[in-house]
Amino acid sequence: MNTRSTATTLLLVFSLLGTAFAGGEEPNSILFQDVRVFDGTATELTEPTRVLVEGNRIAAIGGDLATPSGARVIKGQGRTLMPGLIDVHVHLTFSALSMPRLLSPDLTPELAETAAAEQAEAMLLRGFTSVRDMGGPIWSLKKGIDSGRYPGPRVWPSGATISQTAGHGDFRLPSERSRRFFGEPSRAEQLGATFIADGRAEVLTAVRENLRFGASQIKLMAGGGTSSAYDPVDVTQYTFDEMRAAVEASEDWGTYVAVHAYTPRAIRRAIEAGVRVVEHGQLLDEETLGIMAEQEIWLSTQVLRASTPDMDPMRRTKREPVLAGQARLWPLARELGVQLAWGTDFLFEPALNHEQNSNLMLLLEWFTPAEILKMVTHDNARLLALSGPRNPYPGRLGVIEPDALADLLLVDGDPLADLTVLAEPARNFVVILKDGRIMRDATAP
Prior knowledge:
Elements: H1 3-16, E1 29-37, E2 49-54, E3 57-61, E4 72-75, E5 80-83, E6 85-90, H2 99-103, H3 109-125, E7 128-133, H4 139-147, E8 154-157, E9 161-163, H5 179-182, H6 187-190, E10 194-196, H7 199-213, E11 218-221, H8 240-252, E12 257-261, H9 264-273, E13 277-280, H10 286-294, E14 298-301, H11 313-336, E15 339-342, H12 356-359, H13 369-384, E16 408-411, H14 425-428, E17 429-434, E18 437-441
Parallel strand pairs: 1-4, 1-5, 6-7, 7-8, 9-10, 11-12, 12-13, 13-14, 14-15
Antiparallel strand pairs: 1-2, 2-3, 5-16, 16-17, 17-18
Helix pairs in contact: 1-3, 7-8, 8-9
Keywords: Hydrolase, Signal
Signal peptide: 1-22
Domain Amidohydrolase-related: 80-437
């Protein structure tokens, strides 16, 4: 199924179940009655209670709350009220387009944005109210979401990935030569997908260019990858000085660098340079994980599948050692007390996007439902907040407490007892609120 038909099918399902689209209803007073609350950290739901939303914030929680005049009343009927889900590793554009489509000479920024906007809306209707975009064209799409032109989750943008020549973000075709020697930026750079930056000066410029456009964090390629043509997974990328330049420029703006890396060597160098977040890390050893725990370095990682129907054979082969390491990484990182965050990192296979919710179920091999719910709400929100003053949406997320931002899901079922209720959002997500606006309400007449 192609991108447009997948999104259209999902939107039709939601509309039949009573969905409000576009920018959502204007914020006002909303009172949830008779709901059992998962607050983002607890191991049990509360007794039935009431939750009042005023504007875009949670105003009060308590069974004796009065109904404000003119408030919209939503009868929970004992269902679960929980924070919106958060995915901290998405690529809204790269996940909306296949690799042949991305390489097509007919692809324009406008067509790419349209495809990404369709997937962003579907993502919001799966209950993901916040995401961290970890590289690619994003500025126009985020502006469209924030202005209400497109429905979609809150977006913490990285902007173009920053990569050395022959690094994980070097997306040049074989016919495209080095910009430094031949003066012509690659098509991927022109589309805003990546910066190929070598040396301290170019890295500084690339980081500052992303910050100029509004990056909430910087994504740097520090090691080889499975979806890139030139770099084996085991290689280390960027010298210490280059990486330190990225950290210094980011810290000057009050934010942080996250690195794509798998191996202990690449990650040790990144930690020494001052990097705060490691993406992936499936080949990490116990010693390096211990250093990360001690220095409070975040590990933002995924549960990757061995193969998917449309996966390129090259990616499948390069992924083998990563898959072998992942089953060891999750339980070891948990045992050592590493700060863990979860994301999906779907790339180049739009049909995969509908598996975003079911991907959470793969964590049940190592974590309890309560631990998983805390990770994808409270803990992932803490990682988003690491952007400090570059946080595009000031306020607390991932919790249900007074003055927190009103990103909420009313769920038919108890996800602490049965996490699989989250795997079927069209069936089980009765109400979706983002920023106090009703994006879906299946209780409405």
